[in-house]
Task: structure prediction
Amino acid sequence: MSTVAELSLPAATTNASAMQRVVSTVFEEVENRLSLFRAESDVARLNRQAGSNEVAIGRHAAAVLAYALRVAEESGGAFDPTVGPLMSAWGFRRGLTNVPHPTAAALGEALAQTGWTNIVLSSHATPDGAESDFVPLADSAHASLRLAGMQLDLGAIAKGYAVDLAYEAIRQQGQCDDFLINLAGNMRGLGTPSAARRGWCIGVRDPLHEGAWLGTIMLNDGEGIATSGNYERHVTINGQRYAHIIDPRSGHPVKEMISVTVLAGSAMEADALSTALFVLDVEQRHTLLEKHPGCGAVYLLETDPPRLLVTPELRERFVPAKAWAASCEYLDGTTPPGGTLNPIQM
Ligand code: AMP
Ligand code: MG
Result:
């Protein structure tokens, strides 16, 4: 996945290397099945058959696609796993940072090849027959992309899914109740602070100040957290930077947002929502979060000066860094809570 993975454990953990192997194995399996760049992955096979044949896909692709379609619908298409042609048009697939501006014709063609409603996924059942957000054991399914030239790109959700799978794998081994998995800022673990453990205090990066934090969030058992940022990947066109998150409704990279951090019930939920919320406007962000009870977000807006916004769910959970404490805005209209947390372990 061209990124860094971390497994954090208390120093006294005895079976650390066994757990590390479990996590690596899970990540490799997910990459083999979901990477755009592995010729035999389910995603690459689907993309090769775009506009023609249905493809048999494994349980990982089926679970991720089902959830991606849910968030695509809930977000009115702001989240769209078929952004592949737009990513290519904006020059993200060339391995270069300086690229030419796409022509209007190229953008028009890419937009015409984008659209989650043209994904067909045969329904799949969970082991107990119930619908579920997280479906690790679903039978394999069939899927197809209706339009020639369509390209699935699960880059906004696959890392969160991989983290959830690794989290479940470690838990099923039953040997560790204090760990944190971090795949490129997509995190999940066990470790609610108690007499027996310190807990995982997550520092939310301040992209405007090297080495600084916007604030911290203590993670509770099983919660997922993810950040989407305009600083993570970008291309430069005529001296101007364009971020890697694209509004599929306009076909243009999003300009108004610097970063979005989401706390959710799983890493996949946090991953998908952070990308979707990055694209949406203020009203639409509220509407999407209402469909995900318990989830909260921290937004850093590209305004002058930049604004740091915190949703009500994180009112007591997000502790702004000193530099932001005075300007941080709470979306329920209250003032910031007092006090700061010092230890930042991540
Ligand atoms: P993330 O870092 O999780 O926000 O994911 C960003 C990645 O998701 C990009 O590098 C693209 O591969 C893909 N992507 C870009 N825009 C969108 C979008 N609007 N909906 C879904 N995926 C997107
Ligand atoms: Mg994401």
The first strand starts at residue 5 and ends at 8. The chain has a mean pLDDT of 91. Residues 191 and 199 are 5 Å apart (CA to CA). Residues 156-157, 226, 228, 271-272, 274-275 surround magnesium ion (ligand 2) (CB under 6 Å).
